[in-house]
Design goal:
The chain is mainly β and 332 residues long. It has three helices and 20 strands. The strands form five sheets. A five-stranded mixed sheet has the order 3-10-9-6-7, with no helix packed on it. The protein has a five-stranded antiparallel sheet with strand order 14-15-11-17-18. Strands 12, 13, 16, 19 and 20 form a five-stranded antiparallel sheet that branches.
Length: 332
């Protein structure tokens, strides 16, 4: 027991002796830089030293910014008069944006062709190899509608011609990609009315032929069973819906066509615009545009706006009258 305790004390003493010795050697080996030592000056005094000397207005050297005398400008003499702005651009009255020409990429050229169909309809065939499943817009004589290509970059759009010398343009992201022209002489036998809009509003064009009321057989709209072939035979008019309500910019249109001078009765066509009241448009103003053509000779464009009823009427359909010029039906 005594021997074990003696060994423990001996071990502790040895450890302390070694620690003290190492500490002394470490301190003894360190050197403190001396002031004036050349090597120390090179290490610690390598920052550049520079002073800027300026002169004042009297030519005397001073430190800092020179005392430059300045003369205040007569700002009233520099005022320019401008013409007063007396036009406020609304959403539908904004200036038309120009189209950007696309730079050709090898193997990606888009092609557009057109073919005539009954009742002065035109079938557009688009091939855009590098634009698979992409949205595009078709423009024609002031009318613009949205559409989409399929998985191979192809699309077919059937659209009513508004002028006999019809030109159609296809744009992707407002970049012009393809154009085509076609002569549609059959348009001289028809009158057309166009309702177009570029919002998510649910709008519809209703034609009430020969004194008909909503729901009567003479009520023609995009959900009724009236075809271009019937119109070509002089039976009645027809309405076609164009566009894509889910597109980023939902260009949409409805076009009513009726045969000028081919109907077997006299009368008139009362055109009305139906708008569904929704949470987005209740209590606010909706905007749209109308186009009317007379046998492909005259295009009349007008902007329309209407105040929607309060949100208590959500789900109801409001019919707007007097937005078009009534069309006369004259028997042959």
């Amino acid at each position: 027991m005594g021997m074990s305790r003696f060994n423990t004390i001996k071990t502790v003493a040895s450890t302390l002796t070694i620690a003290v010795t190492l500490g002394f050697l470490v301190q003894y080996g360190e050197t403190t830089p001396r002031v004036g030592d050349g090597e120390s000056e090179e290490l610690y005094n390598n920052a550049p030293r520079s002073l800027m000397l300026s002169t004042n207005a009297q030519g005397e050297p001073v430190f800092g910014v020179p005392n430059i005398v300045t003369t205040p400008l007569d700002h009233a003499a520099n005022v320019q008069r401008v013409v007063a702005v007396d036009v406020v651009y609304t959403e539908m009255a904004a200036p038309n944006l120009g189209m950007i020409m696309a730079s050709p990429v090898s193997g990606c050229d888009a092609t557009l062709s057109a073919a005539r169909e009954p009742a002065a309809m035109v079938a557009l065939s688009l091939s855009a190899p590098c634009a698979e499943e992409q949205a595009f817009a078709v423009s024609h004589s002031g009318m613009k509608v949205a559409a989409n290509t399929d998985g191979e970059g192809n699309a077919i759009v059937r659209i009513p011609a508004l002028v006999t010398d019809a030109e159609f343009k296809v744009t992707f992201d407002n970049i012009l990609q393809a154009t085509t022209k076609i002569f549609v002489p059959e348009l001289r036998q028809y009158d057309r009315a166009v309702l177009q809009w570029m919002t998510s509003d649910n709008m519809r064009l209703h034609a009430l032929e020969n004194g008909a009321q909503i729901g009567d057989p003479g009520h023609v709209w995009s959900a009724s069973l009236h075809s271009p072939e019937d119109t070509r035979e002089g039976k009645n008019g027809f309405v076609v819906y164009l566009g894509d309500a889910d597109a980023d910019i939902p260009y949409q249109a409805e076009v009513y066509t009726f045969p000028e001078g081919q109907m077997n009765r006299d009368g008139a066509v009362d055109l009305r615009v139906g708008v569904t009241v929704t949470e987005k448009n209740c209590g606010r103003e909706v905007d749209a545009m109308t186009i009317q053509t007379n046998a492909g000779q005259t295009l009349i464009q007008s902007e329309i706006a209407a105040q929607m009823p309060s949100c208590e009427k959500i789900g109801e359909v409001v019919f707007l009258q007097d937005k078009f010029s009534d069309l006369a039906i004259v028997s042959n």
